[in-house]
Design goal:
The complex is a heterotetramer, with two copies of chain A and two copies of chain B. Chain A is 47% helix and 13% strand. By secondary structure, chain A is an alpha+beta fold. The chains are: A alpha+beta, B alpha+beta.
Chain lengths: 392, 346, 346, 392
């Protein structure tokens, strides 16, 4: 059959939206009322919120019911995200697990691994962090030096090395990481994807204070940390291809839903409206940038629906994920730059009662072109894999 | 929610692509630059293919289809910088005529569906503004008066009965012209609110259709340039292996990737008359204009001096891209419209 | 025409640079971030060196010099992100006091020349707008009324006699504060046109002096980042050998190169009261703000995640750069002023 | 002595300006009245204009009087340029010789070469073109393949090869070009700088039509073209260092005087003023870009005065020339982009009576980031020589 284009959501979709909206209306804590998830107290408060969602099956809507989801599709997930951001609900403390590890585990995990980890992830009993980057392996991820050697009992591996930039790393119970299991093999080869219980002896965590003073990420030190064989994801030596699946999610569909930017763009337009009354000269001078930022968010929304339809039709996301990452990171910057331009001198007022969501948001947005693979690396990917330009 | 074209639509696009690959080569384009004409042999081919009559009601011998059906074809037209006025005739004038009361446009529609008419429409009622495609057109849709003064009128003018002063464009196939005409009761086909509505809808369709052609032009410029960058050697390797060149082209490609769904979505919104269809059309034109302008800049920079020559085919696409980026409202014009609609919530 | 600094000026700059290299290391800066204070030991050193009293008339124990003499010193202050209010005290308040009638500022000037005073000045008369450096300052120049209403007044307020509510900035050494004060006849030092003139001149001097600090900050961020790019290895070579990194830094360097003469020229124009000095000040601030904002973006991008950490010294300079780019008028604010003066020919 | 900063021109400078202004007022033909200098007729018309200037010693003011100049300094030259552009005088058909070759000849030429070529250049009896780029040696100038071998009589050289992108090449009498005299030597080495009489047997010229249909430049074909030894500039094998001196002039002080951009920026502001009346919405939307473009021209003017003062003090222009080239080429684009944005749809109207200086200027400006060494190459130079970043 030959489906015509239709950008309307179905009645079933709208019913799902209504259900999500009313649940969120009843349960979402007041905006920004939870302490920062980068504090011990805030981490637990956010965990509690995830558990509340889990109890009513809202924490992982697109997962099979067996694992605590509702078994709905990607469109429903996008609808849920729209409602979630509209409700100004808390940041997802379990995002590394739910948005990055889970898609990979559905693809590469054994049934027993899925049963063991997914429900605990969905209920936030286990919160995950990502152990990929190393001090000398950032953009050059294949330069990973942390290694794993067979344990004496030959029933697992001993992990040794240092990982860094692990968001939530200060408090997470579990870590998914890349380690070199074959020192002989060349760069991308010889890597293995491990699932590590952070309470295992030999694991040390050092929080890293960020530019804004918060401890957003952490360094993880591994000293002969024992990991049993059944905590290898996707097979020994397969680490790179398994990791690239996660990276695809990170840059592609699952990490950054359009709702996040649509919501911010909406606030930007509202701010513009306010300034238009207060300071019309400044506002009109910023009009073009405000419009562009809103359009960038709108283009991201449409592109996501376009991609989602392709994926539902059996298509896959390749190097477009890199184009996607460049676009959402630049959109986030465009939105916050325009907001700061509207605020003018007020922009620098910060903290101590002065609520500065735009400045905080700008600082976070500045990291966008860096994490999940720098935009320089993504542009190389687009040029080489979409346009066929030769590698250097 | 199903944001994709139907197989029928993509198959039609492929058929048109095949034909244009043969009948609209850069050789043909250069000939058209020398002697621009409104209806060459290609016009008949496109008529037989069903492209020209696509939006004409079936009652007048057309296919009665919409912008969603046309948008991929317009993208192909952009890919080859088609010199004929498909946009004006099929995307704008046909639907405009079809919407007139009392079948005022019936005769013209039949001629149009039969490929006997190349049409043009004035973006404004300003008498001195050149009309794209007017020079050499058979049929002109012109306006007088203004909405503000409540005396806006639309007129359907037989080009044979008027003179058109040509205004040359950087791209001669644009066939700009200033019609010297006198409105008469006989030529009037709409007035007052009806005329205003028709012009507003036409402007939105024009923004979206032009955006679609710009997508095609952008894709073509990027492809040509990537190909050149793979072949051109400097410092002992292809210039495409230099990161500066990669990042110029990657930036242009990302803009194109994100402009596409925006344009397709606008076409759907217009066909379905959604509340925000005007805004969607503006987002489409702004996005596609910027994507094309950036691709033009990047293409010229990567080609270097060779891209600056007449013999390099790039110039054929650069000129159309520059012209269409400004036509029917520049990116900045449309951004202003977008913000206005967001603030007034219209 | 001799567009260069005198040897005396560059030698003085070098002397200040040497002292600041010792007394304003990033270690000192981090301490200042923890406990921002208006006048630390550095203030005495800068006073003995003749930096603080530079613009105070000789009669009040100063050197009676101008912005051209000060601008290179302010650039050095930017290089080290000097936490003390040299800009407010020496570039703004001293000349403002020296310009008052009937020696209203004489006593304060003598105290200022002796290094006993850290001053701050309100950019506007808006009661709720935080004043840079007000928190912890000894002397405040505040305004009431507006020029439009003809009731503009300048007041010289002893901080000891008022409370200042601190407003924290991304950069704590900015010591923003909202003074809670009541104007009295005793505090009034200027009113009407004289007050308006003083505020206008102060705004122009502030734009130029802030631009000078931004030059220093920009240079420092670029140097730190180039050094990091030479050392940091990825893919088996320094990241500075990648063209993408080179071009990011080169772009920032070109902006800095062209911002310098613009700022120096504005300082000269203000010292000599040329007809276009206000415009020159706006060009300087716009250029320096954009150069700094771009250098900040590039520096963070090239440093990558490490630049996003508290332990990396880059953050100390990023925060000052972001704050000063907006202070005393953003780049866009000043571009608007420039165009206005060009069109009205003022 | 310790000169204080002073941005005023001296009385003597102002007198010179007044003299130049009044001479130009009496002699400059009506703006754009001469046919295009890329037509045979226009070329001669422009030559005649250069001769008129030469007769009253205005064609090369900064040259020694012995060669037809006034022996004035760089500041007077900048003043003359300001007046020249203000007067909307014709483009300099002898620009390649006067602005590019001459500075090199003063530095490297023998006295007899200077006597032989400079006066003829000043009077435009001999007009020069540049023979550097080759089809396969553009950005990579050191990749030059055109070669010179000793002539049988051992009294000169035989030049063979192809040059391209030679502005004025279609009509010029002389060419300064780079040829490989030592096929063994590596790239930069083994090049020699030749002065070639275009009427010598073996020289063929093919004009290259430009994007706008005009023939702005030409391909030059050399087949065993005899060039006597005394037409080598700066010594055999010294070609690269001699050429770099010319390139320095091209990117640095002498090719693009600030007056060119100040004049265009002035016209831009005037256009903005007109549009502000006609179409205030469009004008105000373009205000920021207009202001930025004007400021870019102003920054270029100030930077040139800054550099000129340094040069007068015995300083030299190094990699700053590359920064300079990036800035003037981007300034030219910024000015013309802003103008086209103000013109809106009118921008595409062209030719046939419609005077389109802005569109023509835009097309020319687009070549700015390409000629005289692409801006990509210049950014490499800035990064490597000003910031010490390692070569790839």
């Amino acid at each position: 059959m030959d489906t015509p284009m239709d950008l309307r959501f179905t009645a079933a979709h709208e019913a799902f939206r209504a259900e999500a909206r009313s649940w969120l209306a009843d349960h979402v804590p007041p905006p920004r009322s939870l302490p920062s998830l980068d504090t011990a107290e805030g981490f637990e408060a956010h965990r509690a919120w995830e558990q509340t969602m889990f109890e009513d099956r809202w924490s992982v809507v697109s997962w099979p019911e067996a694992f605590g989801g509702r078994g709905v599709g990607i469109l429903e997930w996008l609808i849920f995200e729209e409602e979630y951001w509209r409700a100004e609900a808390p940041l997802r403390v379990s995002q590394n697990g739910v948005f990055l590890l889970a898609p990979t585990m559905f693809e590469f995990g054994t049934p027993s691994q899925q049963e063991r980890y997914l429900p605990a992830m969905a209920s936030a009993r286990q919160i995950w962090c990502q152990g990929w980057s190393e001090p000398d392996a950032g953009s050059d991820l294949a330069g990973i030096r942390s290694r794993a050697v067979r344990a004496p009992g030959d029933d697992g591996w001993l992990l040794t090395g240092q990982k860094t930039w692990a968001s939530r790393g200060a408090f997470a119970e579990w870590c998914f990481g890349l380690f070199r299991t074959d020192p002989e093999a060349e760069r991308h080869r010889g890597l293995t994807y491990f699932l590590v219980d952070m309470s295992t002896p030999g694991v040390t965590v050092r929080p890293i204070p960020q530019i804004d003073g918060e401890t957003g990420f952490a360094e993880l030190f591994f000293e002969e940390v024992f990991v049993p064989d059944d905590q290898v994801l996707g097979g020994v030596g397969q680490g790179w291809s398994v990791a690239m699946a996660t990276a695809g999610s990170e840059r592609g569909l699952s990490l950054r839903s359009p709702a996040r930017y649509s919501e911010a763009a909406g606030r930007l337009v509202a701010l513009y409206g306010d300034k238009l009354a207060e300071d019309p000269v400044r506002a009109s001078r910023t009009a073009d940038a405000v419009a562009q930022a809103w359009m960038d968010a709108e283009a991201y929304r449409l592109n996501t629906l376009w991609t989602a339809t392709r994926v539902l039709g059996g298509g896959s996301v390749g190097p477009e994920a890199s184009a996607n990452k460049i676009h959402w990171s630049e959109t986030d910057l465009a939105i916050h730059r325009a907001a700061l331009a509207l605020l003018g001198p007020e922009a620098e007022w910060h903290g101590d009662g002065v609520d500065a969501p735009w400045l905080d948001g700008y600082l976070f947005a500045l990291a966008g072109p860096i994490y999940a693979g720098t935009n320089e690396i993504q542009r190389n990917v687009v040029a080489e894999r979409m346009l066929g330009l030769p590698r250097a | 929610m199903h944001f994709a074209f139907s197989e029928q639509q993509t198959e039609f696009r492929d058929a048109v692509r095949q034909v244009l690959a043969k009948e609209c080569t850069t050789g043909h384009l250069r000939a058209a630059f020398e002697h621009p004409e409104a209806r060459g042999p290609r016009w008949s081919t496109l008529t037989e293919l069903g492209v020209v009559p696509l939006t004409v009601p079936e009652a007048q011998g057309g296919l009665g289809l919409g912008l969603v059906d046309l948008v991929l074809v317009l993208e192909e037209a952009g890919q080859v910088a088609l010199p004929e006025p498909l946009l004006e005739t099929t995307a704008l004038v046909a639907p405009l005529l079809a919407g007139l009361d009392a079948g005022a446009g019936t005769g013209s529609l039949e001629a149009l569906a039969a490929g006997r008419v190349a049409a043009a429409v004035a973006p404004t009622s300003a008498a001195q503004a050149p009309v794209p495609g007017a020079d050499g057109a058979d049929l002109l849709v012109l306006a007088t008066g203004t909405e503000a003064d409540g005396n806006l009128e639309l007129h359907l003018v037989d080009a044979a009965s008027t003179t058109v002063d040509p205004v040359s464009s950087l791209d001669p196939t644009r066939r700009l012209g200033i019609p010297r005409w006198t409105p008469t009761p006989a030529t009037r086909v709409a007035s007052g609110p009806a005329a205003a509505r028709a012009m507003a809808v036409t402007a939105d369709r024009a923004a979206t259709a032009t955006a679609a052609e710009l997508l095609g032009l952008t894709g073509r410029m990027i492809t040509m340039t990537a190909e050149y960058a793979r072949e051109r050697q400097q410092f002992g390797k292809p210039i495409g292996s230099f990161q500066a060149v990669k990042h110029l082209l990657a930036g242009a490609q990302v803009r194109l990737e994100f402009a596409r769904p925006v344009v397709y979505g606008a076409a759907w919104a217009l066909d379905n008359g959604t509340r925000d269809s005007s805004r969607a059309a503006s987002v489409a034109k702004a996005y596609a204009s910027d994507a094309a302008t950036e691709a033009a800049r990047v293409s010229l920079q990567v080609h270097g001096a060779i891209g600056y020559t007449w013999e390099c085919d790039l110039q054929l696409f650069l000129k159309r891209a520059w012209a269409l980026a400004e036509a029917w409202g520049s990116a900045a014009d449309h951004r202003a419209r977008v913000l206005d609609s967001l603030v007034t919530g219209s």
